[in-house]
Amino acid sequence: MSYSPSDSAQAGPSWGSPQETASDPVVRAATKTFTDHRDLLFSIVYNMLGSVADTEDVLQETWLSWMARSQAPGAERIDNPRSYLVRIAANRALDHQAAVARRRETYVGPWLPEPIATPCASAPAFDDTADAVMHTESLSMALLVVLETLSPLERGVFVLHEVFGYPHTEIADILGRSPSAIRQLAHRAREHVQARRPRYEPAPGVRQQVTERFLAATLGGDVDALLQILSPEVSLWGDGGGKAHPAGGLRSFHGRDKVARALIANARRFGRDLDIVYRSVNGAPSAVMFDGDTTQAVISLDLTPDGHQVCGIYIVANPDKLSHLE
User: Fold this and answer.
1) At 286, phi and psi to the nearest 5?
2) 3-class secondary-structure state, position 53
3) Which end of the chain is more exposed for a tag (fewer CB within 10 A), N or C?
């Protein structure tokens, strides 16, 4: 079973207080409006936080705030519910950043964003005028890792502007900042991301072919084939959260030889008896490894701009981050 951000959207009034009933027309209307926008809110918040659990917490708070506003006696009509809900959710996501950062300070080993299953869509080539990030339900694992290095405000502005197309003036209203401050934040975030990410993304078909070759070489113990597919500056991150042993253990590895040795050694110990299913994860073809019905790991690759070699390997094996993919 794969997770969909709308899986809990049918919960309706159970998100709110016990006094709220579906027979109340105000509640029905408010519930429908929230449900209609829930997937958008989930995508925005997830891309700001990189965690499904934290995203659900923010959406719960957004729902409660929305219901309180909808039921307030004498409340003025909200002309643009979408903008109102995005404003609540984005600011609640920013409020959660401090708690998220504190948890990561005590996290065992490298931390990677929580993978989510997504529809597989062809990535459009960037153009000279937009030069925008591909519009998928979720950003790629590699890009989410880059966004972790931004400040919370920079990340929020980047997600709203580059991914969801909000103009700077609207973002200023959402985040309670001046348009000039938002433009400065957007410029810094954009330069930071572009310095660490290629302008062009390989097509999904190319990604899956490379992923299949990579796993065949790794699980087959073919060192020569693995060395050919890895770029000289390749990096490996393995996120087990202290509860599992992904390739790379609790360390990150950099450089073709070190990464190849870590992959081969761990494949011999853990990878041979696992079933592999190829799925779209965070908008890109990835390998999901199962032991029976239990998800053991998700492997996502970042490729060089020409699509010929692997420059980044992200392995999430922390069971707390994988249960929704089963």
Assistant:
1) -140, 165
2) helix
3) N
